[in-house]
Every structure is written in structure tokens, then in C-alpha cells.
Automatic annotation (TrEMBL):
It comes from Vibrio ziniensis. This is Probable peptidoglycan glycosyltransferase FtsW. It is a multi-pass membrane protein. The chain crosses the membrane at residues 27-49, 61-79, 91-111, 117-142, 154-172, 178-195, 202-219, 287-308, 320-344, 356-377. It is found in: Cell inner membrane; Cell membrane.
Length: 396
């Protein structure tokens, strides 16, 4: 009978249901899946440029793997921080973001004419990524404290967060970084709408925001070229439309099932920024339509998770967590839309990363922190539910 003990143990393990976890395991696997896909695709897309720049084909792969390790370590620390602490120190976090945005203008590293990075040796810190999350954390706390004012008054409650955003926007535009400003503005609109701002105020602000963005585009020749090349990239395929035409050719070569992992032609330094802003084009070429759809489904699942966690937080009267979870969902959804849209020629290029996939230390770490915050919000809701069930049992 001893020979059957391992078989009986395995059979018992398979038949026994797992205990209820106090965290969202599906969200963990979705995030880890996206990170793993990102590591594989960055390795594939960066192979040629890494060989040319460093004589080491896996240079960017090793750096991205290091960023992943830092992101996981940081996330494990963030998971231990109660949401009450985020709400308590939201103003301090926003102030630190302002300081970093000023510092990057003074000593920042310039790449392609933009000063967006603070060199830290191990990697270059991009304060704009921290500013996104800190603004959403600050706004979540503000909407909890001033919810009635936001719904009833314009100058009292509605305009104050807009003034904070405008101050951040000025510092970001000096870098310049219009893409981050647009992401922050859209997410801010979504948060104010969820908070119950009057429709007339919301529409007026949206029209004003669109007019300002159009004005900013018209004020800079390189932004005008981006828009004109986006509208008709084939008009100047070797000039202003070069990056987009190469991206479209990558998608065209991918067809249904792709050319196979590692078999991209466009990544052979035909497509600029193949491992960063345009990694999705390499995904389309190597994995095809099926691979593109699967990755988008994973990101869409993460966004849905954020929405459901936000809804659950509101149901448990965790207003701060509810607003913050929904803001993270809007942020991830819109940034994905812009990145994928730029690669597919649906929107002008904005230089935004694909969440948890594109190469970039600051973006990967900050977005991993955002996922950890989602897990913490969900965890606190589950703990509250268990506590309520125990109280009901004791009363009976």
C-alpha cells in the first residue's frame, strides 16, 4: 500500500479546493504575464540595436531584467503600506513630484532634444512617471475631502485640482512632454466625472482642454509634423512619416500568426525605438494578429480588474481606494490606447510606453507600484469583508 501513498496524496491535493485568498490572484498572474511578455519582446526587439551600440546582443535584456527585479522588490514593499498612509501623505508625495520636475529641468539628461531623465547611475529616473501616480493619489484624497464642493461649486471645489494639474503641466511642457500631460488630463477628467462634477462644468473644461492641446500642437513645428505625418505617412515615407510607415509595414508582415518570435525584419534598425515606444509593432510582426489580440486582452483584463476593485472599494465605503483604483484603470487604458494607436497609425505619436511591456525602468517600476496599490485596495476590502462575516457569526 505504501506505493500508492504519493498517488493518493496527489489525488487528494487535486480534489481539495484552495483556501480563499485575501488578495486577487488573477491580477497578480495578469501583471506577471505582461511583465514576462515584455521581457521576451524587449529582448527580441532590442537585439540589433544592442549589438551595434554595446557589442553585447543582450545588453538591453539584462537591463530590462534588472528593472523587473527592482519593480518586483519595490512592489513587495508597497504592498505593506496601508491605503490610509497614501491618503495621509498624498500632499507630500505631490510636493516631491514638483521638486523632481524642477530638478530634471536643471540637471536632467537630454535625449533627442527632451530633458526628461535624472541620471542615477543604475538607471535614469523619469519624474513624469512619478508625477502621474502622485497626482492621481492626491486627487483621490482631494475628492474624498471635497466631494460636495466638487459637485456643487465651480471655483471652490472644481477649479482647485485643475490649478494643481496646470502647475504640473507647465513643468512637463518645459521638458517637453505633451504625452504625459494628455494622459494626466484625460485621467483627471475621468476622476472628476466619477466624483459627480456637473456636466456643464465638465464639458466646458473638456472643450478648454482640447483647445489648449490643439494650441500647443500648433505652437511647435515638430508636433505639427507629427500630426501631418500621422494623417498621411506615405506622403513623406522617408522623412516625417518614416517611423509610422515602418511600423505599418511591421503589422502588415505579421498577418494572422506572425513571422515567428525573433524573425522581425523591421527591428533590424529600420523601425526607430523598436524596443521602447514601438515594441507593439514588433509584437505584431513576430506574433501576428493573434498575439496582438492576446496581449490586448491581458491589458484589458487588468483594466477591468482595476474597475471592479474600485467598485468594490466604494461598496465597502473605502472612497479613497475607489477613486484611486478607477484612476489607475483609466490611466492604463488610455496610455495603452495611445501607444497602440500610435503604432497602428490611428493617433499621432506621443512617446508613451506600453504598460508593463515597453523597455524603461521608471515606467515599469511606477506601473508595478500602481498594480501593487490595486492589490492593496482589494486586500483591505477582503479583510473588511472577513471581519464583517466574523461579526455576523458572533452575533448569531
Amino acid at each position: 500500500m505504501g506505493r500508492f501513498k504519493p498517488i493518493n496524496s496527489i489525488h487528494k491535493w487535486l480534489r481539495t479546493s484552495s483556501p480563499e485568498a485575501l488578495f486577487d490572484r488573477q491580477l497578480v498572474w495578469i501583471a506577471l504575464g505582461l511583465m514576462l511578455i515584455g521581457l521576451v519582446m524587449v529582448t527580441s526587439a532590442s537585439f540589433p540595436i544592442s549589438s551595434r551600440l554595446t557589442d553585447q546582443p543582450f545588453h538591453f535584456m539584462f537591463r530590462h531584467a534588472l528593472f523587473l527585479l527592482l519593480a518586483l522588490i519595490t512592489s513587495s514593499v508597497i504592498l505593506q503600506i496601508p491605503m490610509q498612509r497614501w491618503s495621509q501623505y498624498s500632499s507630500a508625495l505631490l510636493s516631491a513630484s514638483f521638486v523632481l520636475l524642477v530638478v530634471v529641468l536643471v540637471i536632467g539628461k537630454s535625449v533627442n532634444g527632451a530633458s526628461r531623465w535624472i541620471p542615477l547611475g543604475l538607471f535614469n529616473l523619469q519624474p513624469a512617471e512619478i508625477a502621474k501616480l502622485s497626482l492621481f493619489i492626491f486627487m483621490s484624497g482631494y475628492l474624498v475631502r471635497k466631494q460636495d464642493e466638487v459637485r456643487e461649486t465651480f471655483f471652490g471645489g472644481f477649479i482647485k485640482p485643475i490649478l494643481v494639474f496646470m502647475a504640473l503641466a507647465v513643468l512637463l511642457l518645459l521638458q517637453p512632454d505633451l504625452g504625459t500631460v494628455v494622459v494626466m488630463l484625460v485621467t483627471l477628467f475621468g476622476m472628476l466625472f466619477i466624483a459627480g462634477a456637473k456636466l456643464s462644468q465638465f464639458l466646458a473644461l473638456m472643450v478648454a482642454g482640447i483647445m489648449v492641446i490643439v494650441g500647443l500642437i500648433a505652437a511647435e513645428p515638430y508636433r505639427i509634423r507629427r500630426v501631418t505625418s500621422f494623417l498621411d505617412p506615405w506622403d513623406d515615407p522617408f522623412g516625417s512619416g518614416y517611423q509610422l510607415t515602418q511600423s505599418l509595414m511591421a503589422f502588415g508582415r505579421g498577418e494572422w500568426f506572425g513571422q515567428g518570435l525573433g524573425n522581425s525584419i523591421q527591428k533590424l534598425e529600420y523601425l526607430p525605438e523598436a524596443h521602447t515606444d514601438f515594441v507593439f509593432a514588433v509584437v505584431g510582426e513576430e506574433l501576428g494578429f493573434v498575439g496582438v489580440v492576446l496581449i490586448l486582452m491581458l491589458i484589458f483584463s487588468l483594466v477591468l480588474k482595476a474597475a471592479f476593485i474600485g467598485k468594490k472599494a466604494f461598496e465597502h465605503d473605502h472612497q479613497f481606494g475607489g477613486y484611486l483604483a478607477l484612476s489607475i484603470g483609466i490611466w492604463f487604458a488610455f496610455q495603452t490606447l495611445v501607444n497602440v494607436g500610435a503604432a497602428a497609425g490611428m493617433v499621432p505619436t506621443k512617446g508613451l510606453t506600453l504598460p508593463l511591456i515597453s523597455y524603461g525602468g521608471s515606467s515599469l517600476i511606477v506601473m508595478s507600484v500602481a498594480v501593487s496599490i490595486l492589490l492593496r485596495i482589494d486586500h483591505e476590502c477582503r479583510v473588511e469583508r472577513v471581519r464583517q462575516l466574523e461579526e455576523m457569526t458572533d452575533e448569531e
